[in-house]
Amino acid sequence: MMDITLFGVVLIFLSVGLNIQTAESCSCLQRHPQDQFCTSEMVILADVSGKGGSVNNLFRYKIKIIQVLKGSIKAKRIQYVYTDPQSSCGITLDQGRYVLSGNQLKDGIEVGLCNLVNRWDHLSLTEQENFTQTYKMGCDCTISTCSGSPCCPQSKNKCKWEINSPQSREYVCLRDSDDICSWYMSRSKVDENALCKA
To answer: Which of 70, 80, 99, 142 could form a disulfide with 118 if both were Cys (CB 3.0 to 4.6 A apart)?
Structure first.
């Protein structure tokens, strides 16, 4: 009986140690920008004008909303981006224009490393158009990742994204005329046979 109790205590200590180690690191799965857009509560295009200060253990940046890309119309009242500076998932912003996603707070949006945090001037014109116009049209499709061959569609409701293909960040997953989710780039359908590697 003593051995079982001692074994249980050791397991508890190991479990606590593993939980602390997991909490200290931040890892985000690689996701296609459209998938991040469609699964986010809110996506905005905003100018970061400067740093604010700490509020309720969160750091805030003063912003001006340029466009609400996804979310409530009330989002236009947002004045701040909040992030957790103590967490490894916290972010740092410079002055400039960003596409940001996160959870809406009363006067702001809470953003972390696993959300969309993209400098507007670092995006291609195609990517900018996708954020402002095209992604929202494909939110009834799902996107799953694959990192090896073959990278083929598995169902009519899903596009498969090869995470090691940099150009594919410009692709958009939309329903075609046959009601099948397929990749498009600049309004032209991408050759699925070329993407599906044997």
So the answer is: 99
Residues 111 and 182 both lie in one domain: no
130-134 contacts at long range (C-beta below 8 A, 24 or more positions apart): 130/33, 130/34, 130/170, 130/172, 131/33, 131/37, 131/43, 131/45, 131/69, 131/99, 132/45, 132/67, 132/69, 134/172, 134/174, 134/184
- Give the phi and the psi of residue 162 in degrees, each rounded to 5: -85, 110
d(CA 127, CA 119) in angstroms, rounded, equals 11
Read off the pTM: 0.79
CATH for 112: 2.40.50.120
**The total number of structural domains that make up the chain:** 2
**113 and 147 housed in the same domain:** no
Which of these, 170, 137, 164, 129, lies nearest to 149 by C-alpha position? 164
pLDDT tens for each residue of the chain, 198 residues long: 445 554 444 444 444 444 434 445 678 888 999 999 999 999 999 999 977 778 888 889 999 999 999 987 677 788 999 998 777 788 889 999 999 999 988 889 999 999 999 999 999 999 999 999 999 999 999 998 887 666 776 678 998 888 877 778 899 999 998 999 999 987 788 776 666 654
* Residues 131, 124: Cα–Cα separation, whole Å: 11
Would 23 be classed as within a structural domain?
A: no
